[in-house]
Design goal:
alpha/beta; Alpha/beta knot; Trp Operon Repressor, Chain A; 2 domains; five-stranded parallel sheet; 10 helices; elongated; tRNA (guanine-N(1)-)-methyltransferase; EC 2.1.1.228
Length: 248
């Protein structure tokens, strides 16, 4: 799959694409990333890409013409068409299910907004989808683009050290959409705290039940909305409901 990233700061992506286990996805070509700077498509000696908003107000707005020229060049370079995604506070919130859909797709053109935003005429004409990381504002869309790329890359075959690792991520359907449980490693005792006895028992059923209860406990405490969604989908067992009732 191929992602074309439109950004005024392509240098931000260098370390991101070269570090960590997800670099395997980029090095192998499973996830191709091309970086495009709209300044390269701006007119004039100053290569201006932003201007003051009509109607007044603070900040600057990204101009439509350099973005349109950049998009034209990307489409000419791609063999297949791709949706244009703008990262914006007004966008749909990116979640695990969305990351899974993207990981199975052919890629996209990712537009990283800056300043006060992008000229609405460009959005109306060219943007297919707006995405957000949550109810907060970033200085630009680059971090959001990296988040999507990372979520997609780690789901590609062979990228993680253990093929089953992502099956136990929080929000994964394999965990019925619950949060993940706590994890422990050596030493067995650290600063007076011991690893839970269930994890040392070697009894697989006890271990799995302990993990299930910790997932239910964490989800009920931190994200009760996920408990409600799992219940509505019929994913909770009678034992789950009994444990949740004990928690109160």
């Amino acid at each position: 799959m191929r992602f074309d990233v439109v950004t005024l700061f392509p240098e931000l992506f260098g370390p991101f694409l070269e570090c960590g286990v997800t670099r395997r996805a980029y090095e192998s070509g499973q996830v191709q990333v091309r970086l495009w700077n709209p300044r390269d498509f701006a007119a004039g000696n100053y290569r201006r890409v932003d201007d003051r908003p009509f109607g007044g107000g603070p900040g600057m707005v990204m101009m439509p013409e350099p973005l349109a020229r950049c998009l034209e060049a990307i489409r000419a370079d791609r063999a297949e068409p791709a949706p244009v995604v703008l990262f914006s506070p007004v966008g749909r919130k990116l979640d695990h299910a969305g990351a899974e859909r993207w990981s199975a797709g052919e890629g996209a053109i990712l537009l990283c907004g800056r300043y006060e935003g992008v000229d609405q005429r460009f959005i109306d004409r060219h943007v297919d989808l707006q995405l957000s990381l949550g109810d907060f504002v970033l200085s630009g869309g680059e971090i959001a683009a990296m988040a999507l790329l990372d979520a997609v890359a780690r789901l590609q075959p062979g990228v993680l050290g253990d093929e089953d690792s992502h099956q136990f991520d929080s929000f994964n359907p394999a965990l019925d959409g619950l949060l993940d449980c706590p994890h422990y490693t050596r030493p067995e005792e650290w600063e007076g705290q011991r690893v839970p006895a269930e994890l040392l028992s070697g009894h697989h059923a006890r271990i799995e039940r302990w993990r299930r209860e910790r997932r239910l406990e964490a989800t009920a405490r931190e994200r009760p909305d996920l408990i409600a969604a799992a219940r509505a989908a019929g994913r909770l067992t009678g034992s789950d409901e009994a444990f949740l009732a004990q928690l109160g």
